[in-house]
Amino acid sequence: MAKRTDTSSTPSDKSPQGGAPKKAKKPNGFQQFLQVFQMTRKADPNAVWLMLLVFLGVTAVSLLIGLLLDNWITGLIIGILLGVLGAVFILSRRAERAAYAQIEGQPGAAGAALNSLRRGWIVEEQPVAVNPRTQDVVFRAIGRPGIVLVSEGPSVRVRQLVEGERKRLARILPNVPVHVIETGRDEGQTPLRNVAAKMNKLKPQLTKTEVAAVSKRIASLGTRLPIPKGIDPTRMRPDRRAMRGR
Fold this sequence. Notes:
Structural class: alpha+beta
Number of helices: 8
Radius of gyration: 26 Å
Largest sheet: 5 strands, mixed
């Protein structure tokens, strides 16, 4: 007679932890750096040569200074350390460009660019004005300079959306300044990577308490718009670690 094999309790059906799936490990610092480097090299091959040039140049200058001071070993060590810092700085700047290049031209990119703002800004993740047909949108941020409207779309086409939102804000907050930044590559527009820097250069006109009061006043109106298909800035954010080079 053929033997009967009982497979109901074979080890292959059970995991060592009682069936609980193992969680994926988060990449460590070196792995994150390697991911940023690979992403940047793919988007900007010249970045590698520029990093190498900066590293060798800084190291050579430091070594030369060490020779003049009759201490070339110390000069070489300092040069290597400074050279590495210089190369990482170049990688950080190039990675930032590559991160924005990945989202530029996609619906909701202007909103994603606002996620790189420093503390002190209250950013609406969803657009406050939308043209469903053209997918032109206007995003809003509130900070000490006042209210900033960031538009996405051709200037002529998106102007009506911006003016409509500006008039609405003027009715409910007549004493709060409203600034407009048009994103894009056309004349008079601001590239995505420069949006945060331009906003941070605006002159402060409100206190922190007033910023919070303005945000609450706008939130109390409860105006939320349906988001057109294809626009989701919460899922399309520039890699902050890539922008910082780590």
